[in-house]
Amino acid sequence: MDRSTALTWSWLNILTKKRFDALKEVYGDLDTALQHLDEEMLRTLGCSEETMMKTMNRLEEFSVEQYQAEVQTRKLHFLSIEQETYPEKLRDIPDPPLFLYYYGSIDILQQPCIGLVGTREMSSYGKRVAEEFARASVQAGIVTVSGLAEGIDGAVAEESLHAGGKTIAALGHGLAMIYPSSHKTLAKKIVGSGGLLLTEFPLDTTPGKHTFPARNRIIAGLSLGTVVLEAPEKSGAIITAELALEYGREVFAVPGHIFDENYAGCHRLISTGQAKLVHSPEDVLRDIGIVSSGRGSAVSAYEPQSPMESTILDCLTTMPQPVDDIVGKTTLSSGDVNSTLTMLELAGAAQNIGGGQWVKRG
Questions:
Q1: Same domain, yes or no: 157 and 262
Q2: How close are the terminal C-alpha atoms of the chain, in Å?
Q3: Which of 21, 163, 257, 362 is 20 to 30 A distant from 194 in Cα terms?
Protein backbone atom coordinates (compact mmCIF):
# COMPACT_ATOMS: atom_id res chain seq x y z
CA MET A 1 0.00 0.00 0.00
CA ASP A 2 1.22 3.52 -0.61
CA ARG A 3 2.08 5.86 2.26
CA SER A 4 -1.12 7.90 2.02
CA THR A 5 -3.22 4.76 2.26
CA ALA A 6 -1.21 3.48 5.22
CA LEU A 7 -1.51 6.78 7.06
CA THR A 8 -5.27 6.84 6.47
CA TRP A 9 -5.83 3.30 7.76
CA SER A 10 -3.59 4.09 10.71
CA TRP A 11 -5.61 7.21 11.51
CA LEU A 12 -8.83 5.16 11.47
CA ASN A 13 -7.21 2.77 13.96
CA ILE A 14 -9.51 -0.19 13.30
CA LEU A 15 -7.31 -2.75 11.57
CA THR A 16 -6.11 -5.90 13.26
CA LYS A 17 -3.96 -8.44 11.44
CA LYS A 18 -7.05 -10.60 10.97
CA ARG A 19 -9.01 -7.73 9.37
CA PHE A 20 -5.99 -6.75 7.30
CA ASP A 21 -5.73 -10.26 5.86
CA ALA A 22 -9.49 -10.39 5.20
CA LEU A 23 -9.41 -7.13 3.22
CA LYS A 24 -6.41 -8.26 1.18
CA GLU A 25 -8.20 -11.49 0.33
CA VAL A 26 -11.29 -9.62 -0.91
CA TYR A 27 -9.72 -6.55 -2.54
CA GLY A 28 -6.17 -7.62 -3.28
CA ASP A 29 -4.59 -4.69 -1.48
CA LEU A 30 -5.40 -2.03 1.10
CA ASP A 31 -5.32 0.79 -1.46
CA THR A 32 -8.31 -0.70 -3.26
CA ALA A 33 -10.00 -1.62 0.01
CA LEU A 34 -9.83 2.00 1.16
CA GLN A 35 -11.74 3.09 -1.93
CA HIS A 36 -14.60 0.78 -0.89
CA LEU A 37 -14.66 1.74 2.77
CA ASP A 38 -18.23 2.19 3.98
CA GLU A 39 -20.48 1.05 6.81
CA GLU A 40 -21.19 -2.26 5.11
CA MET A 41 -17.48 -3.09 4.95
CA LEU A 42 -17.06 -2.16 8.60
CA ARG A 43 -20.03 -4.33 9.54
CA THR A 44 -18.49 -7.24 7.63
CA LEU A 45 -15.26 -6.72 9.58
CA GLY A 46 -17.22 -7.10 12.82
CA CYS A 47 -17.19 -3.46 13.94
CA SER A 48 -19.84 -2.30 16.39
CA GLU A 49 -22.31 0.45 15.47
CA GLU A 50 -20.40 2.88 17.67
CA THR A 51 -17.10 2.01 16.00
CA MET A 52 -18.65 2.32 12.55
CA MET A 53 -19.94 5.81 13.30
CA LYS A 54 -16.65 6.91 14.83
CA THR A 55 -14.66 5.51 11.89
CA MET A 56 -16.77 7.22 9.23
CA ASN A 57 -16.55 10.53 11.14
CA ARG A 58 -12.76 10.25 11.41
CA LEU A 59 -12.50 9.46 7.71
CA GLU A 60 -14.62 12.49 6.79
CA GLU A 61 -12.53 14.91 8.85
CA PHE A 62 -9.17 13.44 7.80
CA SER A 63 -6.66 15.23 5.58
CA VAL A 64 -3.75 12.97 4.74
CA GLU A 65 -1.66 15.95 3.60
CA GLN A 66 -2.09 17.75 6.93
CA TYR A 67 -1.51 14.59 8.92
CA GLN A 68 1.65 13.72 7.03
CA ALA A 69 2.91 17.27 7.55
CA GLU A 70 2.32 16.95 11.30
CA VAL A 71 4.22 13.66 11.44
CA GLN A 72 7.14 15.30 9.63
CA THR A 73 7.01 18.44 11.78
CA ARG A 74 7.33 16.32 14.90
CA LYS A 75 10.30 14.50 13.29
CA LEU A 76 8.53 11.16 13.63
CA HIS A 77 8.87 8.14 11.38
CA PHE A 78 6.09 5.88 10.14
CA LEU A 79 6.17 2.24 9.06
CA SER A 80 3.62 -0.25 7.78
CA ILE A 81 3.92 -4.01 8.11
CA GLU A 82 4.35 -4.26 4.33
CA GLN A 83 7.69 -2.41 4.42
CA GLU A 84 10.98 -4.31 4.54
CA THR A 85 12.23 -2.20 7.44
CA TYR A 86 9.35 -3.32 9.69
CA PRO A 87 10.83 -5.11 12.77
CA GLU A 88 11.05 -8.85 12.09
CA LYS A 89 10.49 -9.84 15.71
CA LEU A 90 7.12 -8.08 15.65
CA ARG A 91 6.25 -9.47 12.25
CA ASP A 92 6.65 -12.97 13.71
CA ILE A 93 3.92 -12.65 16.38
CA PRO A 94 0.32 -13.68 15.61
CA ASP A 95 -1.15 -10.20 16.18
CA PRO A 96 1.49 -7.68 15.06
CA PRO A 97 0.71 -3.97 14.93
CA LEU A 98 0.11 -3.06 11.30
CA PHE A 99 1.51 0.44 11.66
CA LEU A 100 4.28 1.90 13.79
CA TYR A 101 5.24 5.47 14.66
CA TYR A 102 8.65 5.98 16.16
CA TYR A 103 11.03 8.65 17.34
CA GLY A 104 14.69 7.79 17.65
CA SER A 105 16.87 5.02 16.27
CA ILE A 106 14.98 2.05 14.77
CA ASP A 107 18.36 0.37 14.15
CA ILE A 108 18.65 -0.72 17.79
CA LEU A 109 15.93 -3.28 17.09
CA GLN A 110 18.66 -5.26 15.32
CA GLN A 111 20.29 -5.81 18.72
CA PRO A 112 19.07 -8.38 21.27
CA CYS A 113 16.28 -6.94 23.43
CA ILE A 114 14.94 -7.93 26.83
CA GLY A 115 11.60 -6.85 28.32
CA LEU A 116 11.88 -5.63 31.91
CA VAL A 117 8.42 -5.00 33.32
CA GLY A 118 6.65 -4.43 36.61
CA THR A 119 4.20 -2.47 38.68
CA ARG A 120 3.67 1.28 38.86
CA GLU A 121 3.51 0.93 42.67
CA MET A 122 7.20 0.18 42.95
CA SER A 123 8.70 -0.73 46.33
CA SER A 124 12.26 0.06 47.38
CA TYR A 125 13.09 -3.63 46.85
CA GLY A 126 11.52 -3.54 43.39
CA LYS A 127 13.52 -0.44 42.52
CA ARG A 128 16.70 -2.22 43.53
CA VAL A 129 15.76 -5.25 41.41
CA ALA A 130 14.91 -3.06 38.40
CA GLU A 131 18.23 -1.23 38.60
CA GLU A 132 20.25 -4.45 38.96
CA PHE A 133 18.59 -6.15 35.98
CA ALA A 134 18.67 -3.05 33.76
CA ARG A 135 22.32 -2.33 34.51
CA ALA A 136 23.48 -5.92 33.95
CA SER A 137 21.45 -6.18 30.75
CA VAL A 138 22.93 -3.12 29.06
CA GLN A 139 26.42 -4.03 30.24
CA ALA A 140 25.95 -7.35 28.44
CA GLY A 141 25.05 -5.47 25.24
CA ILE A 142 21.28 -5.91 25.47
CA VAL A 143 18.69 -3.22 24.77
CA THR A 144 16.07 -2.99 27.52
CA VAL A 145 12.38 -2.63 26.65
CA SER A 146 9.70 -1.24 28.95
CA GLY A 147 6.61 0.94 28.84
CA LEU A 148 7.70 4.36 30.22
CA ALA A 149 5.07 4.16 32.97
CA GLU A 150 5.78 5.28 36.51
CA GLY A 151 7.42 2.81 38.86
CA ILE A 152 9.38 -0.13 37.44
CA ASP A 153 9.26 1.11 33.82
CA GLY A 154 10.78 4.43 34.75
CA ALA A 155 13.46 2.83 36.92
CA VAL A 156 14.43 0.46 34.09
CA ALA A 157 14.77 3.30 31.59
CA GLU A 158 16.67 5.57 33.99
CA GLU A 159 19.16 2.89 35.03
CA SER A 160 19.67 1.70 31.45
CA LEU A 161 20.72 5.21 30.49
CA HIS A 162 22.74 5.71 33.66
CA ALA A 163 24.68 2.53 32.84
CA GLY A 164 25.47 3.84 29.36
CA GLY A 165 23.02 1.63 27.49
CA LYS A 166 20.06 2.07 25.19
CA THR A 167 16.42 1.47 25.94
CA ILE A 168 13.12 1.26 24.09
CA ALA A 169 9.86 2.70 25.44
CA ALA A 170 6.72 1.18 23.94
CA LEU A 171 3.90 3.67 24.45
CA GLY A 172 0.19 3.18 25.00
CA HIS A 173 -0.74 6.41 23.23
CA GLY A 174 0.09 8.54 20.23
CA LEU A 175 3.36 10.45 19.96
CA ALA A 176 1.66 13.84 20.13
CA MET A 177 2.11 13.48 23.89
CA ILE A 178 4.13 11.72 26.57
CA TYR A 179 2.35 9.95 29.42
CA PRO A 180 2.90 10.39 32.25
CA SER A 181 3.91 14.00 31.68
CA SER A 182 6.50 13.65 34.44
CA HIS A 183 8.46 11.42 32.04
CA LYS A 184 8.84 13.99 29.25
CA THR A 185 12.44 14.64 30.22
CA LEU A 186 13.14 10.92 30.46
CA ALA A 187 11.67 10.39 26.98
CA LYS A 188 14.02 13.05 25.58
CA LYS A 189 16.97 11.37 27.30
CA ILE A 190 16.02 8.01 25.79
CA VAL A 191 16.06 9.40 22.26
CA GLY A 192 19.12 11.55 22.89
CA SER A 193 21.03 8.48 24.04
CA GLY A 194 20.28 6.55 20.87
CA GLY A 195 17.14 4.85 22.15
CA LEU A 196 13.63 4.62 20.76
CA LEU A 197 10.05 5.68 21.47
CA LEU A 198 7.62 3.37 19.69
CA THR A 199 3.84 3.15 19.33
CA GLU A 200 1.22 1.73 16.99
CA PHE A 201 -1.33 4.45 17.76
CA PRO A 202 -2.10 7.53 15.63
CA LEU A 203 -0.90 10.85 16.97
CA ASP A 204 -4.13 11.89 18.68
CA THR A 205 -4.67 8.66 20.67
CA THR A 206 -4.79 9.23 24.42
CA PRO A 207 -4.03 6.56 27.06
CA GLY A 208 -6.94 4.25 27.84
CA LYS A 209 -7.82 0.82 29.21
CA HIS A 210 -7.42 -0.82 25.80
CA THR A 211 -4.21 0.94 24.78
CA PHE A 212 -1.92 -0.42 27.48
CA PRO A 213 -2.64 -4.14 26.88
CA ALA A 214 -2.04 -3.44 23.17
CA ARG A 215 1.24 -1.75 24.07
CA ASN A 216 2.25 -4.77 26.18
CA ARG A 217 2.26 -7.09 23.18
CA ILE A 218 4.86 -4.85 21.52
CA ILE A 219 7.13 -5.22 24.58
CA ALA A 220 6.69 -8.99 24.54
CA GLY A 221 7.04 -9.19 20.77
CA LEU A 222 10.29 -7.24 20.54
CA SER A 223 12.01 -9.15 23.32
CA LEU A 224 13.95 -12.41 23.45
CA GLY A 225 12.47 -12.79 26.91
CA THR A 226 10.41 -10.88 29.45
CA VAL A 227 11.43 -10.49 33.09
CA VAL A 228 8.72 -9.63 35.61
CA LEU A 229 10.57 -7.66 38.27
CA GLU A 230 7.70 -6.83 40.64
CA ALA A 231 4.03 -7.41 39.93
CA PRO A 232 0.77 -8.05 41.82
CA GLU A 233 -1.79 -10.55 40.53
CA LYS A 234 -3.62 -8.11 38.28
CA SER A 235 -1.17 -5.92 36.41
CA GLY A 236 0.01 -5.03 32.95
CA ALA A 237 3.29 -6.82 33.66
CA ILE A 238 1.45 -10.12 34.05
CA ILE A 239 -0.40 -9.48 30.77
CA THR A 240 2.97 -8.89 29.09
CA ALA A 241 4.33 -12.14 30.51
CA GLU A 242 1.29 -14.11 29.32
CA LEU A 243 1.63 -12.61 25.83
CA ALA A 244 5.32 -13.53 25.76
CA LEU A 245 4.35 -17.13 26.57
CA GLU A 246 1.85 -17.11 23.69
CA TYR A 247 4.61 -15.92 21.37
CA GLY A 248 6.96 -18.68 22.45
CA ARG A 249 9.34 -16.30 24.20
CA GLU A 250 11.07 -16.90 27.53
CA VAL A 251 9.47 -15.56 30.72
CA PHE A 252 11.27 -14.99 34.01
CA ALA A 253 10.07 -13.74 37.38
CA VAL A 254 11.88 -12.38 40.42
CA PRO A 255 10.57 -13.66 43.78
CA GLY A 256 9.75 -11.40 46.71
CA HIS A 257 8.47 -11.68 50.25
CA ILE A 258 5.69 -14.31 50.46
CA PHE A 259 3.39 -11.85 52.27
CA ASP A 260 3.99 -9.02 49.78
CA GLU A 261 0.98 -8.55 47.48
CA ASN A 262 3.24 -6.64 45.10
CA TYR A 263 4.90 -9.98 44.29
CA ALA A 264 1.78 -12.15 44.17
CA GLY A 265 1.82 -12.07 40.36
CA CYS A 266 5.48 -13.09 40.21
CA HIS A 267 4.87 -15.95 42.63
CA ARG A 268 1.90 -17.25 40.64
CA LEU A 269 3.92 -17.25 37.42
CA ILE A 270 6.66 -19.20 39.18
CA SER A 271 4.42 -21.67 41.02
CA THR A 272 2.44 -22.54 37.88
CA GLY A 273 5.61 -23.09 35.87
CA GLN A 274 4.86 -20.20 33.51
CA ALA A 275 8.00 -18.32 34.49
CA LYS A 276 11.47 -19.37 35.52
CA LEU A 277 12.51 -18.15 38.94
CA VAL A 278 15.59 -15.95 38.68
CA HIS A 279 17.83 -14.76 41.49
CA SER A 280 20.09 -12.54 39.40
CA PRO A 281 20.44 -10.94 35.96
CA GLU A 282 23.04 -13.58 35.13
CA ASP A 283 20.33 -16.27 35.39
CA VAL A 284 18.46 -14.53 32.57
CA LEU A 285 21.53 -13.83 30.47
CA ARG A 286 22.63 -17.46 30.59
CA ASP A 287 19.17 -18.72 29.69
CA ILE A 288 18.77 -16.54 26.61
CA GLY A 289 22.30 -17.31 25.47
CA ILE A 290 23.83 -13.87 25.96
CA VAL A 291 27.50 -13.71 26.90
CA SER A 292 28.63 -10.68 28.88
CA SER A 293 30.77 -8.18 27.01
CA GLY A 294 33.28 -8.25 29.83
CA ARG A 295 32.34 -4.94 31.35
CA GLY A 296 31.04 -6.72 34.40
CA SER A 297 27.60 -7.30 35.86
CA ALA A 298 27.79 -4.29 38.10
CA VAL A 299 30.66 -2.18 39.45
CA SER A 300 34.12 -3.53 40.08
CA ALA A 301 35.05 -4.69 43.62
CA TYR A 302 35.75 -1.76 45.92
CA GLU A 303 38.63 -1.79 48.38
CA PRO A 304 37.67 -0.08 51.69
CA GLN A 305 39.74 3.02 52.39
CA SER A 306 39.40 2.88 56.18
CA PRO A 307 38.40 0.49 58.99
CA MET A 308 35.09 2.36 59.24
CA GLU A 309 34.32 1.76 55.56
CA SER A 310 35.22 -1.89 55.96
CA THR A 311 32.90 -2.26 58.96
CA ILE A 312 29.95 -0.68 57.15
CA LEU A 313 30.54 -2.63 53.93
CA ASP A 314 30.54 -5.86 55.94
CA CYS A 315 27.16 -4.84 57.30
CA LEU A 316 25.59 -3.89 53.97
CA THR A 317 23.89 -6.47 51.76
CA THR A 318 21.81 -6.34 48.58
CA MET A 319 18.68 -6.18 50.75
CA PRO A 320 17.69 -2.63 51.72
CA GLN A 321 18.19 -1.57 55.32
CA PRO A 322 17.78 1.78 57.11
CA VAL A 323 20.61 3.76 58.64
CA ASP A 324 19.34 3.01 62.17
CA ASP A 325 19.81 -0.72 61.56
CA ILE A 326 23.34 -0.13 60.28
CA VAL A 327 24.12 2.00 63.34
CA GLY A 328 22.81 -0.77 65.60
CA LYS A 329 24.84 -3.49 63.89
CA THR A 330 28.11 -1.54 63.73
CA THR A 331 27.89 0.39 67.05
CA LEU A 332 29.21 3.41 65.15
CA SER A 333 27.67 6.84 65.63
CA SER A 334 24.87 7.99 63.35
CA GLY A 335 27.07 10.81 62.03
CA ASP A 336 29.94 8.46 61.19
CA VAL A 337 27.61 6.01 59.46
CA ASN A 338 25.91 8.73 57.38
CA SER A 339 29.17 10.38 56.29
CA THR A 340 30.80 7.04 55.45
CA LEU A 341 27.77 5.87 53.49
CA THR A 342 27.94 9.08 51.46
CA MET A 343 31.59 8.45 50.62
CA LEU A 344 30.83 4.83 49.71
CA GLU A 345 28.02 5.98 47.42
CA LEU A 346 30.35 8.41 45.66
CA ALA A 347 32.79 5.52 45.17
CA GLY A 348 30.04 3.35 43.71
CA ALA A 349 30.22 0.79 46.54
CA ALA A 350 26.87 1.60 48.20
CA GLN A 351 23.58 3.06 47.09
CA ASN A 352 20.78 4.98 48.76
CA ILE A 353 17.67 3.54 47.07
CA GLY A 354 15.28 6.00 48.69
CA GLY A 355 13.47 6.27 52.01
CA GLY A 356 16.80 6.17 53.87
CA GLN A 357 17.38 2.58 52.72
CA TRP A 358 20.90 1.46 51.77
CA VAL A 359 22.29 -1.50 49.80
CA LYS A 360 25.70 -2.75 48.76
CA ARG A 361 26.75 -2.48 45.12
CA GLY A 362 29.32 -4.62 43.38
A1: yes
A2: 53
A3: 362
